[in-house]
């Protein structure tokens, strides 16, 4: 834990020590880019506004090099694309800007660009910080599910703190526009995202990316309300989907039948944490099958093609429902997977957010440790 705190302190101290990027006003700019091929020589490429795709300037590629020159009244989040191979984002502002087509795909050389480039660099190297976080949590928490929860919390704290360090003073300019489109924002928890959106200036609030995030917060608020309305003691909500053979199947085919408890697992083929829950579900299915428990999978946010493949690849033997109409997550307010819910024989919800060994212990205690 000390290593986590030390690393985060070093990162944030470095951010706070950086000079705040100046707000760009009007002036001349020169944007220079180079690509490692002459195949586009003679072609005209355009510097476009990121928001509207408006052409702001043009240049002819010569010897793999392009130069855009002109005047700008204020900083604008922009982009340059060369064919289908190369792209680079930048903030068009007064000064000399160099395009990095090869690694971080962002401009450098002028104040706002340098700050945006540092954001990209911080996100690109985030895995080293997350690894330290995970190692520290792994060393002090034995239970896998609790370990993942704590690691996720610390990771989201890190995303929030880095974003906030750069966002301060740029709530209504081009750097703020870039930050709204960054991986750091997309990795934040809902409450932190809401706090960011509340600080947006009048211009930035009108941008496409800001509207997207505002819409996303509202959608997730709906899910949070659905989650609240499907808590302990609430009767299950039915949802229809299809089985492995393509036939129609409903949650009510298993839940609320008056005999078995049902352990419902929301999962997808691309979800690593979901796959880590499968051995625990398999243990419970084997122990309690025919003894008061049915395990059911709810395959969500995925494709029909991946459905059968994933079930076979994971060696899953319990019933599955593919949420073909994408309704299950909305009904149960599922914002992230895995989400595992235990239903009583009468169909009422006993518990949510079950994971790992704690899930196994809870189910065993609820069902009388196997009824053997």
Account of the 3D structure:
This protein has 372 residues and is α+β, with helices and mostly antiparallel strands. The protein is built from twelve helices and 14 strands. It has helices at 2-17, 111-124, 126-140, 144-167, 174-180, 183-186, 190-198, 208-228, 272-288, 304-313, 328-332, 356-367, and strands at residues 27-34, 44-49, 55-60, 65-72, 76-82, 86-92, 95-99, 240-242, 248-250, 261-267, 293-299, 320-322, 339-343, 349-351. The strands form four sheets. The protein has a five-stranded mixed sheet with strand order 12-11-10-13-14, covered by helices on one side. Strands 3-2-5-6 form a four-stranded antiparallel sheet. Helix 1 (2-17) packs antiparallel against helix 3 (126-140) and helix 1 (2-17) runs parallel beside helix 4 (144-167). The radius of gyration is 26 Å and the shape is elongated.
Summarize the structure.
With 372 residues, the chain is an alpha+beta fold. Helices cover 41% and strands 21% of the residues.
Q: Kindly report the spatial arrangement of strands forming the biggest sheet.
A: 12-11-10-13-14
Largest sheet properties: 5 strands, mixed
Average of per-residue pLDDT values: 91
Total of helices? 12
- The global form is elongated
Low-confidence stretches: 1-20
First-residue to last-residue Cα separation: 43 Å
- C-alpha Rg (nearest Å): 26 Å
Please identify the structural class as seen in this structure: alpha+beta
**How helical, in percent, are the residues?**
40-55%
Secondary structure: number of strands: 14
What pattern of helices and strands is seen along the backbone?
A: HEEEEEEEHHHHHHHEEEHEHEHEEH
Range of strand content:
15-25%
């Amino acid at each position: 834990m000390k290593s986590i705190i030390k690393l985060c302190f070093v990162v944030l101290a470095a951010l706070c020590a950086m000079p705040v990027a100046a707000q760009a006003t009007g002036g001349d700019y020169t944007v220079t880019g180079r690509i490692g091929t002459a195949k586009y020589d003679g072609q005209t490429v355009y510097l476009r506004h990121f928001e509207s795709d408006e052409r702001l300037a043009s240049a002819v590629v010569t010897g793999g090099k392009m130069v855009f020159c002109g005047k700008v009244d204020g900083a604008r989040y922009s982009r340059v694309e060369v064919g289908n191979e190369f792209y680079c984002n930048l903030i068009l502002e007064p000064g000399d800007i160099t395009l990095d087509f090869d690694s971080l795909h962002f401009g450098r050389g002028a104040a706002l660009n340098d700050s945006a480039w540092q954001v990209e660099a911080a996100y690109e190297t985030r895995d080293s910080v997350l690894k330290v976080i995970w190692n520290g949590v792994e060393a002090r928490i034995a239970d896998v599910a609790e370990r993942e929860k704590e690691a996720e919390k610390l990771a989201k704290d890190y995303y929030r703190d880095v974003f906030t360090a750069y966002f301060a003073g740029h709530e209504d300019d081009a750097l703020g526009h870039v930050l709204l489109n960054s991986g750091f924002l997309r990795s934040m928890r809902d409450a932190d995202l809401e706090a960011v959106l509340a600080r947006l200036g009048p211009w930035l609030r009108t941008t496409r990316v800001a509207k997207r995030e505002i819409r996303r917060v509202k959608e997730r608020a709906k899910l949070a309300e659905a989650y609240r309305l499907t808590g302990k003691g609430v009767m299950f909500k039915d949802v229809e989907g299809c089985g492995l053979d393509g036939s129609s199947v409903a949650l009510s085919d298993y839940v609320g039948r008056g005999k078995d408890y049902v352990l419902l697992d929301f999962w997808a083929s691309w979800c690593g944490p979901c796959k880590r829950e499968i051995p625990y579900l398999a243990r419970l299915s084997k122990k309690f099958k025919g003894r008061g428990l049915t395990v059911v999978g709810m395959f969500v946010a995925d494709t029909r093609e991946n459905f059968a493949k994933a079930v076979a690849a994971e060696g899953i033997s319990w019933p599955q429902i593919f949420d073909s109409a994408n309704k299950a997550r909305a009904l149960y307010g599922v914002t992230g997977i895995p989400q595992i819910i235990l239903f009583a024989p009468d169909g009422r919800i006993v518990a949510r957010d079950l994971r790992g060994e704690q899930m196994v212990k809870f189910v065993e205690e609820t069902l009388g440790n196997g009824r053997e």
